[in-house]
Amino acid sequence: HAKAAGRNTHAIFGSHMDELLSNRRALEADLRLALQTHSQLETFYQPVYAADTGALSSLEALARWKHPTLGYVSPDQFIPLAEESGLIHEISALVLEDACRMLAEVPGIHIAVNASALELASPGYALRVLGILARWQVQPNRLEIELTESAMAPEKSELETTISTLRSAGVRFAIDDFGTGYSTFSRIQRIEVDRIKIDKSFIGEMHQGASRAVVSAMISMAKAKGLLVTAEGVETDEQRSALQDFGCDHLQGFLLSKPLPRSTAITLAAGDQKVSGIRA
Ligand code: C2E
Ligand code: MG
Ligand code: MG
Ligand code: MG
């Protein structure tokens, strides 16, 4: 069925589609090469702050790919490509390794990493994560995994097994991009998580009364379920103060800090005052 649709599309769009497909293939080949050479992939860390005190709460690890000729390629572009080609497992392993090394280097901090439902359902995922934590001698409760739903969502049961294995060991879980496509309230009825992260598209629309009401309702419902709430994509003071009023636990966004290179994030997390100005 999908193949037939692809052929029709191809017939309609002709050479434009050819070009798109070959671009994708070229990008995939470059990503494969980047993973082999270990030079173009990096992990950045975006600080997350307590909404009430403004204290640094945790860091979110975000993959960065600096392509030799294209420059920085957005994760929104290369992560889906990596998922389709299976390279996502290697990328995640690199990010997780970097995050655990950071956890070992800076005692007391917490770090979140991203993983798609597809990754979590892959055999051995839970054991790989626990293995890396053990190797770095890091307490599992200092790691949080942000689950992003994807169109390639696997069987629910595999996902649940992974989550319950890791949660029993102390690893925390969040539902990322909450409120969009696949991450809805029906999802948190069935999957055990510790936190929701409200998608930045809702935060960006908070100047509209209706959207502000939706955000407020999401926070109330999450609180009623005993879940922590992070708002992502906080860009204005107005958003911040409304989120504080609604009882949102944690804030993340350009207003507070952009994702930082590893060394800057370490300096910040270690509490060096020289990095003032980053904290809002
Ligand atoms: P995400 O996990 O929801 O991460 C938040 C994204 O929002 C990041 O984009 C971050 O740079 C961006 N962001 C933070 N604050 C603001 C703000 O105030 N305004 C706006 N407009 N954007 C903000 P980024 O780094 O481009 O990553 C995009 C997505 O790619 C992530 O969304 C995540 O789903 C995925 N991703 C990134 N790294 C990894 C990874 O290592 N593994 C997996 N599986 N996915 C990853
Ligand atoms: Mg995330
Ligand atoms: Mg998100
Ligand atoms: Mg996302």
UniProtKB/TrEMBL annotation:
Residues 24-273 form the EAL domain. This is Bifunctional diguanylate cyclase/phosphodiesterase. The lineage of its organism: Bacteria, Pseudomonadati, Pseudomonadota, Alphaproteobacteria, Hyphomicrobiales. The chain holds residues 433 to 712 of 712 of the full protein.
